[in-house]
Recover the amino acids of this structure.
């Protein structure tokens, strides 16, 4: 079958243009190509296409199958793409966190979608296309949801036999990441699933069982990314790269043994690192570790079910700094139960941590999360965030939205509108080729500072 996998264009021309590779689509492309399908992958967002250019491409190609993926904040973009594609495509399939979390309700939201892939898509997509080629006999394969048909859950794919993503189908020179320390950007996933129980995290796609690839396999892919695709900085997008210490040691030692010239960033927990490990990571090319600090208030950490304490963060950030690594703190402001004083306390805590970067956000209950199961979709007003392209997400908070917006503005401006932070961002923007994104963020924060 002729398959077109696509990431649609930006909602509007004013949305941020920078993006990272659509790794999920690239994984599915590799699986489909391996069984003989004719696969093309279009990243219309990275190519900066208009919606008219996107429709023209569909008219020209007339694929048998169009594959889309969606997270909940951009589900409206996928719905628009499906509606535009409907006259030009025989089958439309949607995967990703949004259809996995919302179930059959997605067909009311997106009536142009024929089927959804529920969970990790590599094996399921192959089975779905085989079912369509055979004339759709009987019930859909496990992992495939069709409106009105019985649904069966699929097994997770064997992580040791998943093929590397089809990066040769991507416009790799178009990807940028502001906090990269070099140009030539790529992403990787070395493990799937997360055993922790954070209440705001959607684990509907990959589940709670942590499945990790062997160190040699990880570095095989890293070597391909560097030598074949020209990447010089890689973001490891695992939920928790540092979960198993010995595996991190093996990955780092293998990078050093092969002499790979690559720098990288990963995600960790404040209770999952130590000085010796961080120094080894630094020698192996790590430049930044991102930590889900979330809050400087103990009661908020309990609400978020982080299973860490406030006191664990300072030592992790100090060890990261002493190892010569940069740190990024993810922070949630204004969670239910927090007062303005509590928000201010967390902002002060970020400064005390001496984090190199902070990403402030508000608490949103996304489908598939325990918070959503408890609260449902919030009906209140969303709080605008300068780093988000999706600005209509309703916020879970006890604070008046306008008050939380003011506090959020102050947090961003107070952290980044300082000479040292601005100098670091300017240096990173030049190093990563992300000057336009840095200027966008600077303008947004400048406007916020004036408005506040």
């Amino acid at each position: 079958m002729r398959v077109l996998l696509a990431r649609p264009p930006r909602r509007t021309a004013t949305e941020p243009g920078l993006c990272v590779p659509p790794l999920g689509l690239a994984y599915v492309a590799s699986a489909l190509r391996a069984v003989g399908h004719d696969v093309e992958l279009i990243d219309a967002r990275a190519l900066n296409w208009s919606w008219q250019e996107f429709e023209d491409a569909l008219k020209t190609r007339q694929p048998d199958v169009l594959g889309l993926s969606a997270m909940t904040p951009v589900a409206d973009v996928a719905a628009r793409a499906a509606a535009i594609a409907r006259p030009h495509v025989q089958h439309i399939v949607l995967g990703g966190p949004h259809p996995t979390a919302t179930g059959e309700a997605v067909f009311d939201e997106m009536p142009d979608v024929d089927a959804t892939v529920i969970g990790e898509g590599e094996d399921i997509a192959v089975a779905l296309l085989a079912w369509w080629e055979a004339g759709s006999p009987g019930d859909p394969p496990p992992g495939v949801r069709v409106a009105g048909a019985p649904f069966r859950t699929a097994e997770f794919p064997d992580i040791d036999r998943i093929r590397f993503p089809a990066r040769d189908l991507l416009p790799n020179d178009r990807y940028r990441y502001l906090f990269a320390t070099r140009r030539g950007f790529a992403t990787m996933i070395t493990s799937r699933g997360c055993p922790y129980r954070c209440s705001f995290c959607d684990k509907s796609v990959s589940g709670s069982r942590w499945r990790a690839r062997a160190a040699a396999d990880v570095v095989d892919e890293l070597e391909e990314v560097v030598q074949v695709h020209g990447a010089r900085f890689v973001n490891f997008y695992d939920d928790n790269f540092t979960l198993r210490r010995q595996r991190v040691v093996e990955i780092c030692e293998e990078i050093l043994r092969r002499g790979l010239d690559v720098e990288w960033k990963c995600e960790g927990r404040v209770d999952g690192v130590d000085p010796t490990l961080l120094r080894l990571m630094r020698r192996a090319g790590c430049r930044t570790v991102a930590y889900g600090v979330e809050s400087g208030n103990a009661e908020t950490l309990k609400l978020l079910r982080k299973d860490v304490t406030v006191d664990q963060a300072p030592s992790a950030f100090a060890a990261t700094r002493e190892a010569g690594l940069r740190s990024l703190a993810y922070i949630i402001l204004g969670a239910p139960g927090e007062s303005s004083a509590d928000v201010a306390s967390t902002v002060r805590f970020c400064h005390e941590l001496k984090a190199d970067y902070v990403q402030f956000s508000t608490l949103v209950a996304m489908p598939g999360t325990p918070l959503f199961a408890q609260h449902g979709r919030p009906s209140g007003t969303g709080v605008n965030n300068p780093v988000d392209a999706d600005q209509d997400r309703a916020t879970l908070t006890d604070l008046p939205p306008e008050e939380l917006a003011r506090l959020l503005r102050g947090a961003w401006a107070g952290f980044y509108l300082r000479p040292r932070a601005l100098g670091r961002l300017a240096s990173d923007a030049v190093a990563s080729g992300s000057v336009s994104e840095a200027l966008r963020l600077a303008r947004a924060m400048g406007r916020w500072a004036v408005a506040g």
